[in-house]
Write the structure tokens for this entry.
Amino acid sequence: MIRVLIVCSWGMSTSLLVDSMLAAAQEYQYELIVEALSAGEYLEKVEACDVVLIAPQIRHLRKSIEKLASSVGKPVAMIEPFHYATMNGRAVLEQVLRLLPRNTQEGKTAT
């Protein structure tokens, strides 16, 4: 199981990206949980996730999010603005997989 936390502004447009990521995960047969939370809500969930992604519209908070995520050993990255704008869940899922250590990718149920 791969658990992704997306930190965003309000979560409205990000919910479309979440749906696209879940569809891509199903296609690749990965078990995936994606939660999109606002910058004010994510603090409590960082420890429970495998990867933290930052939506482009809150890039001004990147340093504080990176500081918190790294303090609990979680990889963090900005979502590519083009992939966010086009709601390309497959590309964002691939970004998540690149951030994970190999042993965490055992969420894959088949090839």
About this structure: The mean pLDDT is 90. The two ends are 15 Å apart (CA to CA).
